[in-house]
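User: I'm writing a tutorial on reading structure tokens. Could you give me a worked example: one chain, its sequence, then its tokens, then a sentence or two explaining what the tokens reveal?
Assistant: Sure. Here is the example chain.
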Amino acid sequence: MKRILLHALIICFFAIALPAQTLFAQQTKLSGTVYDFFNQRPLEAVTVQTSSGSNTITDSTGKFTVVIFKKDSVWFSYLSKRTLKYAVDTIRDITNFEIALHVDAAWLPAVKVRNSNYRFDSMQNRQEYAKIFNFKKPGLKLSSASTSSYVPGGVTAGLDLDEIINMFRFKRNRQILTMQNRLIQEEEDKYVNHRFTKFLVHKLTGLSNNSLDSFMNISRPSYELLQTMNDIELGYYIEQCHKIYAANKKQQESIFMRPEPN
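And here are its predicted structure tokens:
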């Protein structure tokens, strides 16, 4: 019985591993740089997408690297404008594919002056970067067959092949996780700035100018702490921190003003 189970496990392993190896053999990477057509400067934050579902964005130097397959097509998106699709097999050098985008001034978003709304901005940010915020590190997952393709007596669930492939896309996973952490940190900083404001601190402490900046840097609460406090508790926190700040400042002044012994 044990031998039968062992043989069955070996067969299942090869049934999964062989198609995965075939896919890995077919895939490669496309690298290049995106420029602005007019001034020949590198373009940052250009989305690079492929017909197989891979995607990335250009860095501050306009460079990108994306996973491709032989029969793929690739295209670029910037400010909601998309280029034509380029067939991978027509690209001469996939290690240095350079493209210049015609960026029209009319594409640039209009500048509107409005009052900052933290909740609205946060929701928009979450929607715009939904794929990054919702990203989870790939792992072994089961995929179930659709009801339309169900065959009586057949297997209705198996390992998700896409997840297995994504497990080995280490660079892509690192990049997404890094961006996810950066977006979360920015969101937390904006939350703290939204509640721990210069107007509130000045109103409660009377500090201004350099003293106000110094106090706010020293007493800035963490995101986790601020989440546990309501507005009244935040005011009490600022007042208590100010008492400590004032006492330390008075002590430092007394040390510098102490008369020298005869």
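What the tokens reveal: Residues 33 and 63 are 4 Å apart (CA to CA). The longest helix spans residues 170-195.
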